[in-house]
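[agent] plan:
  1. take the single chain provided in the ticket
  2. run structure prediction with default settings
  3. attach structure tokens to the ticket
  4. add a short note for the reviewer (M.T.)
[agent] executing step 1
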Amino acid sequence: MKPIRAARRRAAGLFLALALVATAAGCGDDSSSDAAGGPAKVTFGYIADYSGAAALAVARKQGLWKKAGVTPELKVFTNGPLQVQALGTGDLDFGYLGPGALWLPASGRASIVSVNMLGLADRVIARPGSGIDRPADLKGKKVAVAEGTSGDMILNLALAGAGLEPDDITKVAMDASTVVTAFSSGQVDAAATWYPLIDTMKKKVPDLKEISRTEDYYPKLTFPNVFVTQPKLASSDPALVKKVTGVLKAAGDWIAAHPEESESVTADFLKLPAGQLKGSTKYVKILPSDELTKLTRDGTVDGWFDELAATFHRMGKLPDPGKAQDYYLGDLYAAARKADRS
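[agent] step 2 finished; step 3 output follows
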């Protein structure tokens, strides 16, 4: 199956390249519209939290969709895999994925159009008195984790970095809220989870230890959340995908320049109390589009996705890690013109 998959990827990449050339030659202003000549219409999925909604909230507030000539229909989802399923059925054109769902693009089920934010919230933490001061000390210990999440990912990274195998610990799988209860009550020695859940744990275990952090792996590896599209849409209408990407680039730049204000704009978008998302930007790294373009062109972003795919492979979620160049549309991202530019 691998030769067939590789051939399909090469064919898809060639088709996209030819389509981009044709678009550039035949349409100098890089515009696209629906058949009636009006704004292009797209369906866009999101998750109702800060990272999952901030760009869309800012795009609406700043009028970026109108500037790009795009009319979005926004649909809220509870998780990334459901959005990828909707992409596959054609019920969604674009969506948002957290880092725990990035094995789906790597498996060929979605194409990444843009990095959104880099997650800084994940930790492996240990209870005081557990004898755990570094990842190597996890051997033989009971560790709580929500499987398939970014907490699961950082746990696997910590184990691999310490030369341990998953079987070297007693992994206790549970949902994220139960991880909080199990750790706080002393049912487990350690946990792999994230902020702000750890803030809740600290109320009962104030002297807990952080033995592995997301930042420990940067810049070689990071936990990005991303925007994705249907692979067939990227091939058939790259001009439209570039327009939407331009909106996301402009929104991301505004967020990078106004992080605290973006929290209140997102709260308003989600119809939450004004201060409910205050402090959300503490847990993410927001890169301006110029920097992301540079990191895309020098291969750094591909490296992030390749390293994550290798992690998913070790976790047993991704039989064939593939290569980021097959599912991250880096050339398209770099070429997309920001929606706020005339």
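[agent] step 4 note for reviewer: Confidence is low (pLDDT under 50) at residues 1-33.
[agent] ticket updated
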